[in-house]
Structure formats: structure tokens, C-alpha cells
Specification:
Layout lengths: L7 H28 L3 H19 L18 E3 L6 H10 L5 E6 L8 H8 L2 E3 L4 H16 L3 E4 L11
Parallel strand pairs: 1-4, 2-3, 2-4
Length: 164
């Protein structure tokens, strides 16, 4: 059984406030680059954002086999989506060296600042309730791959239980 941290509710509020403030900080920093669709710079800021959130969360991340990550060309990464930390872990493992684009539910692109940054970075919205639009998202991902960018997909489409 996991050890319960003292002040659980207070700690949770503190952490989510920190996530909000860090996201707002990086989001405001990146806005000038969004106007010019400077996707590489926006992706760099997103990488720093993800790494900062992991660092401040106090979560230990052990990476085994990072040397096996293919860095010479575009790759499609598939992963189960088990927690919010998946995002930060991908940014940490792939770092800035691998230019990648997320496929993410379209509603995230409607969130002010964060959604604008995601669009500016060239991340790919997926309209999960419309098959035709979802197929177009796959074509958009294929175009990113042709342009030399890797693509990250959570095939389950949402966070799932650890056992599948």
C-alpha cells in the first residue's frame, strides 16, 4: 500500500496551483512565437515545461534504454496513457533532440494559451466523435512524418487503468 503523505488535500491543492502557474508562465513566454508559428521554439518551451513539472512534482523518473530511442528520423511512438505524467515523461525521454508532434483530443486546443501553443507547435487535434475528422488527423500525422517529425499517439484515446 502506498504511503499516505501528510496534508494530502493541502499538498494536492499546492501541486495543482503550481501546475497552473507553471503552465501559465511558459504559455505566456511562448505566445510571441505562436504568432509566427515558430514550431521548433514552441516545442522547446513545451519540453522545458514538461521537464519542470516533473522536477517540481518530486517524482523520480528512471529511464532505461534511452539510448535505444531512434533519433535519426521520424518515428511513431505508441503508448498507453496512464496519467498526466505521461506527457512530462515523453518530454524528458525524447528531450529537445527529437522533434515530435502529439496527437491530442481537439478539446485541449480550445483551452486559452495552452491550446494556442499546441496549435502553434503543430500538434495534431483529433476530433474523437467524428470519424471523418479523425481520419483527417491521421493524414495530418502522416504529413508531419513526411516533414521529418515524429508523432506520439495514445491509441486508447484517453487515460486508462494501468492494467490496460
Amino acid at each position: 500500500m502506498a504511503k499516505q503523505r501528510k496534508g494530502g488535500l493541502i499538498w494536492t491543492i499546492f501541486v495543482w496551483l503550481g501546475v497552473f502557474l507553471i503552465t501559465l508562465f511558459f504559455g505566456l513566454l511562448v505566445m510571441p512565437f505562436v504568432l509566427f508559428r515558430a514550431s521548433h521554439i514552441i516545442h522547446w518551451f513545451a519540453t522545458m515545461w514538461g521537464r519542470t513539472l516533473l522536477l517540481l512534482s518530486g517524482s523520480g523518473v528512471t529511464i532505461r534504454g534511452q539510448e535505444k530511442v531512434y533519433r535519426e528520423g521520424p518515428v511513431i511512438f505508441l503508448s498507453n496513457h496512464q496519467s498526466m505524467f505521461d506527457i512530462g515523461v515523453f518530454y524528458r525521454v525524447l528531450e529537445v533532440a527529437v522533434q515530435f508532434r502529439w496527437m491530442a483530443k481537439s478539446s485541449l486546443f480550445k483551452i486559452p494559451i495552452m491550446g494556442w501553443a499546441m496549435a502553434g507547435a503543430g500538434y495534431i487535434p483529433v476530433e474523437r466523435d467524428d470519424r471523418r475528422k479523425a481520419l483527417q488527423s491521421m493524414f495530418n500525422a502522416a504529413e508531419q512524418i513526411r516533414l521529418g517529425k515524429s508523432v506520439i499517439i495514445f491509441p486508447e484515446g484517453t487515460r486508462g487503468k494501468p492494467d490496460g
